[in-house]
Design a protein that fits this description.
By secondary structure, the chain is α/β, with parallel strands linked by helices. It folds into two domains: 190 residues, Rossmann fold, CATH 3.40.50.450; 129 residues, Rossmann fold (3-Layer(aba) Sandwich). The strands form two sheets. A seven-stranded mixed β-sheet has the order 3-2-1-4-5-10-11, with helices on both faces. Strands 7-8-6-9 form a four-stranded parallel β-sheet, sandwiched between helices. α1 packs parallel to α9, α5 packs across α6 and α6 packs parallel to α11. The structure holds 6-O-phosphono-beta-D-fructofuranose. 6-O-phosphono-beta-D-fructofuranose (F6P) binds next to loops.
């Protein structure tokens, strides 16, 4: 079994509320287990540059309640090159970093796999507001982003009601509609528009017209950014032109990525951080820590990445070759369940948003 002198922590990709709670949990768990910790700044870019600092228990004080990431984040095209990888490995050797917990999304996990293959044990933590990592039910930051979104949309509802308007609100989520759907239900939206489900614009126009006729004053339509460039603006114009309901468009964008993490995100991040360190110390690596039916569990990163590709219909030839029949069947079942969940949420928005 590998013994650890030091582990590093990095955050990579888009930041997410709760990342700091994870950094704190990883640091304090490792130190409690007798392992030193290095904070690696600005993701893989910091690893390449040697931008690292020893972290003690007090270095992570007063951060559990803050959004963003005290380790900063960056996207690192250099890390994808052999030269960048060699520089990253040199930093690990220079600072005796034998293991890394990398917090981020799928790009972060690919980096973790590359490092593991070169001898630095890595564990990934799912940190992204998008909730687009198929292997886990929840990602760190998703809950806070939705809570922020509902606060903003509730405000829009106030003014929409006063002026008898329709507010079309675009929320982040990359290619995933999770934020739009769950937020849509929580704010009582008339509709949520997401890339996973074919959207019937004419039906929405008819629904708004009918509801206006029977006295409804305000309408909220939540659109996921995955619908593409200018979709929301165009939909806003169409609603106004075809229903006669004055309409306004608001893009919440990065606003929902910041702010105080919710209880749920702090708890998830803390549990996952502790679990990740214990996995590393048990000699495990190349795993992503997941929330599976409210249990914290570890899933092989390769499995998680291929599962993601399957869910997103992006499988390449040979992707499934290394998996058993049972594993493939399990992946298919996970994808089917996730699709069914999305469809069910979509139906609920439509059913309740009258
Ligand atoms: O992955 C998180 C996320 O906020 C997505 O929702 C969004 O599409 C993207 O990152 C925005 O990236 P950037 O911060 O580089 O503009």
């Amino acid at each position: 079994m590998k013994t650890f002198r030091r582990i590093g922590i990095l955050t990579s990709g888009g930041d997410a509320p709760g990342m700091n709670a994870a950094i704190r949990a990883i640091t304090r768990t490792a130190i409690a287990r007798g392992v030193e910790v290095m904070g690696i700044y600005s993701g893989y870019e910091g690893l390449i540059e040697g931008n690292v600092k020893p972290f003690g228990i007090r270095d992570v004080s007063n951060i559990v309640n803050h959004g963003g990431t005290v380790l900063y984040s960056a996207r690192s095209p250099r890390f994808k090159t052999e030269e960048g990888m060699q520089a990253a490995m040199a930093t690990c050797r220079a600072y005796n970093i034998d293991g890394i917990v990398a917090i981020g999304g799928d790009g972060t996990f690919r980096g973790a796999t590359d490092l593991t293959a070169r001898g630095v044990s890595c564990i990934g933590l799912p940190g992204t507001i998008d909730n687009d990592i198929t292997a886990t039910d929840y990602t760190i930051g998703f809950d806070t982003a939705m809570n922020t979104a509902i606060e903003m949309i509730d405000r829009l509802r106030d003014t929409s009601e006063s002026h008898a308007r329709c507010s079309v609100v675009e929320v982040m989520g990359r290619d995933a509609g999770d934020i739009a759907l769950q937020t849509g239900i929580a704010v009582g939206a008339t509709a949520a528009v997401v890339p996973e489900i074919t959207f019937d614009e004419a039906a929405l126009v008819a629904k708004i017209k009918k509801s206006r006729e029977i006295g409804k004053r305000n309408f909220i339509v939540v659109v996921s950014e995955g619908m593409g460039h200018d979709f929301s603006e165009r939909l806003t114009s169409r609603i106004e032109e075809e229903t006669g309901v004055e309409s306004r468009f608001a893009r919440l964008a990065h606003v929902i990525r910041g702010g105080t993490p919710s209880l749920r995100d702090r708890l998830l991040a803390s549990r996952m951080g502790e679990f990740a360190v214990d996995e590393l110390l048990k000699g495990r690596s190349n795993e992503v820590i997941c929330d599976c039916n409210n249990e914290i569990c570890a899933i092989d990163i390769e499995y998680a990445l291929i599962l993601d590709r399957m869910y997103k219909n992006k499988l390449k030839e040979g992707d499934l070759d290394r998996f058993t029949k049972d594993q493939i069947a399990e992946m298919q079942a996970t994808c089917a369940k996730r699709r069914a969940d999305i469809e069910s949420l979509y139906e609920t928005v439509n059913l309740l948003g009258l």
